Amino acid sequence: MKSEVWLDGLSERLASQARFLVEVDRLKTVNRGNRIADGSRRENTAEHSWHLAMFALVLREWSVEPVDIGRVVQMLLLHDLVEIECGDTPLFDVTGASTQAEREKLAADRIFRILPDDQGHKLRELWEEFEEAQTADARYAKALDRLQPIIMNHVVRGGTWTDYDVDVARERSLTQRIAQGSPVLWDMAEHIFADAIANGWLRLTAVQRDVAS
Fold first, then answer.
1. Smallest Cα–Cα separation from 77: which of 108, 109, 47, 36?
2. Which H or E run includes 112?
3. What's the CATH number where 198 sits?
4. Model pLDDT for residues 130-152, shown as the tens digit of each residue
5. Would the pTM of this model clear 0.85, i.e. be above it?
């Protein structure tokens, strides 16, 4: 166990908060499937969370419902902390997805427990609100979480679409919840899909190919 001498003399509350902040630094080591915009490497989950917070600030006007942008940003900064324990589960990983919810719940139990009880409980509630996606804030946050990889896959000319040989029907089925948070951003996603198909980065289904031919 790492030495915690540096925490000596701090109140129990402040020491717990400091431990949590050091623990979440591990998110910088969790690599995701998506590449950064220049295509040189895959993004890590800390970068993904920061990027989503920027999406929330910049695209706020396109939310279908009024949102509390402060709560949305908090959700986006918190939503993937569980990957410290679980690692990233790519959207197209069917096997990983079957156990994802349970693995992430156990990870949340441990991570938020590091904080003082009142603070850990509050942040855990925000994490659960995001997961359940039953509020306007959470629906908008979820929409952005689906939109960001779409944009990045297009920018790098395929990305995880080509990695997993994804067809457009599968992509739509996994990302259509964007429309619940913002029909405008879903229209944007559809525009990106069409261009990705035209460029060969996203496949048509067999039926669509037959119709097109």
1. 47
2. helix 94-113
3. 1.10.3210.10
4. 999 999 999 999 999 999 999 99
5. yes
